Amino acid sequence: VNVEDDDGLMNDDSSHNKHLPKALTNSPCSIASTSGPAFPPFNEQVKERAGWLIGLLFLQSCSSFIIQYNQTFLQNHMVIVQFLTMLVGAGGNAGNQASVRVIRSLAVGTLNRHTMDQFLRQEAKMALCLSALIGTTGFIRAALFRTPPGETIAITTS
Hints:
Order of helices and strands: HHHHHHHH
Largest sheet: none
Helix content: 55-70%
Number of helices: 8
Distance between the termini: 61 Å
Strand content: under 5%
Structural class: mainly alpha
């Protein structure tokens, strides 16, 4: 039974959620839920997000130790430094794409215990295919810039 509120809008969960996938409306963590606050308190969000970001900041600082350890090598092969941003960016973008796909699949209900193996196999094949394509593209870029063969191979395999 639909009941009109004072504002003239229908107030029935089945009617205002009918455009959402069933997995979202029947989930205990449903984003379509009308009870409770829409978002966690601001301070709670800051603590959670800052914790992750600060942890990642420290983890990513490890790259400076690796660069420092290989400083002599990098000084002798400066061309590799010119490709570092390309390599780091490509890796970060590929990881973000996979993460977004996992989150989206979880949200719409297509990734679950029954589909996990198939999903992981597909992502493994995707990783191999994309790494071959990105590696080839990196090789072509290095070759076009007349990068010495040793550095070109190092860049391509990275």
